[in-house]
UniProtKB/TrEMBL annotation:
UniProt function note: Catalyzes the conversion of dethiobiotin (DTB) to biotin by the insertion of a sulfur atom into dethiobiotin via a radical-based mechanism.
A Pfam family: BATS
Taxonomic classification: Bacteria, Bacillati, Bacillota, Bacilli, Bacillales
Organism domain of life: Bacteria
Pathway linked to the protein: Cofactor biosynthesis; biotin biosynthesis; biotin from 7,8-diaminononanoate: step 2/2
UniProt keyword annotation of Metal-binding present: yes
UniProt binding sites for [2Fe-2S] cluster: 115, 147, 207, 277
Similarity field: Belongs to the radical SAM superfamily. Biotin synthase family.
Example GO BP: biotin biosynthetic process
Protein's recorded name: Biotin synthase
Annotated gene: bioB
Subunit and partners: Homodimer.
């Protein structure tokens, strides 16, 4: 009987949220701490919210590593950081033609969002020139949402990106303010907040998320989701740490499938109407339970990530179809 009551409680919470009540931090923590036997009830409740706002549609995002390596920052999770003992490709920012070819590939893969990512602390004005020139041509030829992730922005750069046609700017909070300095010391948490604010002020859609599994506490993870709620991030990528050999976090254990699902579900309870995207690390953390993440999340990356491989595009599209979902417009089947 107790099990039935617990399952009912998750459903009641989801319905309360749909009626306008915000979940509390204590309630969100209970999602993370739910027993493994409750996982289907938790996901069913999260799906109630996901379906209300997004139906059975999945947004596809394709990421390109448009500038690799050569980064002066010391982020402990990153294979491209200055302190990583890794072998990654090192090359400057792609030229205009390469950025356009990447967009064409995104269209071929049925992605609605094309994410241009560059390593480094932040872009030079010359690099902004390269990106904006390419974006103008892409937007003129292809109905893609353009997301840029170029690092910490200087004054005036956000406005230039917006004017060229960049729709969204990604800059993750990554972790809790109190855990930030355990992950990197070459920039501050405030630097990240300033860049998110710059994107918002320039009227780009703010995209900001987390990397779970870097040693943060459950309370810190939940509080970071609430911080993203305060920032009113439209899109929230949930990265699950993929420990890379040669980085300071190489020996951390992966989050694991059931815990990963609870993290994604908790994000949906806290941010019921936002785009929740399963991002880097989903293959190694969720493993065979990847399809279940779609009950809480409504967005995924397809193809490879920055320095780690992803699931084959056809496998992702088959997974979406097998789950009874459809790919979002403009390239998928419209759901009414």
């Amino acid at each position: 009987m107790k099990g039935m009551e617990k399952r009912s409680n998750w459903s009641i919470l989801a319905n309360d949220i749909l009626k306008g009540r915000s979940v509390t931090k204590e309630e969100a923590l209970k999602v993370l701490r739910a027993s493994d036997s409750e996982i289907l009830a938790v996901l069913t409740a999260a799906y109630t919210l996901r379906y209300h706002y997004y139906n059975n549609v999945v947004k596809l995002n394709m990421i390109v590593n448009a500038k690799s390596g050569l980064c002066p920052e010391n982020c402990g999770y990153c294979a491209q950081s200055s302190i990583a003992d890794t072998e990654v490709d090192k090359y400057p920012l792609w030229d205009k033609e390469s950025l356009i070819r990447g967009a064409e590939e995104a269209v071929q893969r049925k992605a609605g969002t094309y994410c241009i990512v560059a390593s480094g602390r932040g872009p030079t004005n010359k690099e902004i020139d390269q990106v904006t020139e390419a974006v103008k041509d892409i937007k003129a030829a292809m109905p893609l949402t353009i997301c840029a992730c170029l690092g910490i922005l200087k004054e005036g750069q956000a406005e230039r990106l917006k004017k060229a046609g960049v729709d969204r700017y990604n800059h993750n909070l990554n972790t809790h303010v109190d855990h930030h300095d355990a992950i990197t010391t070459t920039h501050t948490y405030a630097d990240r907040e300033t860049t998110i604010d710059s994107a918002k002020q320039a009227e780009m859609s703010p995209c900001s998320g987390v990397i779970a599994g870097m040693g943060e506490t459950e309370e810190q993870l939940i509080e970071t989701f609430f911080a993203l709620k305060e920032w009113d991030a439209d899109s929230v990528p949930i990265n699950l740490l993929h420990p890379v050999k040669g980085t300071p976090l190489e020996n951390r254990e992966t989050v694991g499938p059931l815990t990963s699902l609870k993290i994604i579900a908790a994000a949906r309870f806290i941010l019921p109407d936002k785009e929740i995207r399963v991002a880097g690390g989903r293959e190694v953390n969720l493993r065979s339970l990847q399809p279940l993440a779609l009950y809480a999340a409504n967005s995924i990356f397809i193809g490879d990530y920055l320095t780690t491989g992803g699931q084959q595009v056809m496998a992702d599209q088959q997974m979406i179809e097998d789950m009874g979902f459809s790919v979002d417009e403009p390239y998928g089947t419209k759901t009414t």
